[in-house]
Amino acid sequence: MGEGNRNEREERFAIPLSLFSFQNWFAMVPFFFNKPLYRVQPHVSFITPERTAKTIPAISRWTLAAGAAVFLFAMQVPKVKSTILQPIAFLGDHFKDKTPEEDKWL
Predict the structure, then answer these.
(1) Do 95 and 81 touch, CB atoms closer than 8 A?
(2) For residues 59 and 61, what is the distance between their CA atoms, to the nearest angstrom?
């Protein structure tokens, strides 16, 4: 009925003594006696603070690039030249129109 004698069965199902050493038992104490603390991460729909912190650098780079592109295209608009670009201290002279009146046809 049994395979092997009683000593072989005890050895097969015996718990190694190394599991009961002080270091291993001390490491398992929080697992046995303290329940893990589960908390719901604050969120709005699927937007969490962790995801927001990861996407802020990418969003800021895209915003800077889009702002630079809009500014580059808006530099040719006369109202932008006169109200924004010409009042700049050292760069304002570059954006002043220096073409003579007879060469302007528009």
Answers:
(1) yes
(2) 5
Q: How far apart are the first and last CA of the chain?
A: 109
The pLDDT value given to residue 55: 95
Instruction: Give Cα separations from 11 to 15, 76, 103 (angstroms).
Output: 8, 88, 105
Residue 47's SS3 state is strand
In the numeric block, the tokens 């006369």 are attached to 78
Q: Which residue ranges make up each domain of the chain?
A: 49-98
Looking at residue 57, what is its pLDDT? Answer: 95
What value, to the nearest 5°, has the Cα angle with vertex 57 and ends 69 and 52? 125
The 3-state DSSP class for residue 22 equals helix
Q: Summarize pLDDT for 5-40 with one digit per residue, the tens.
A: 666 656 665 555 555 555 555 555 555 556 667 788
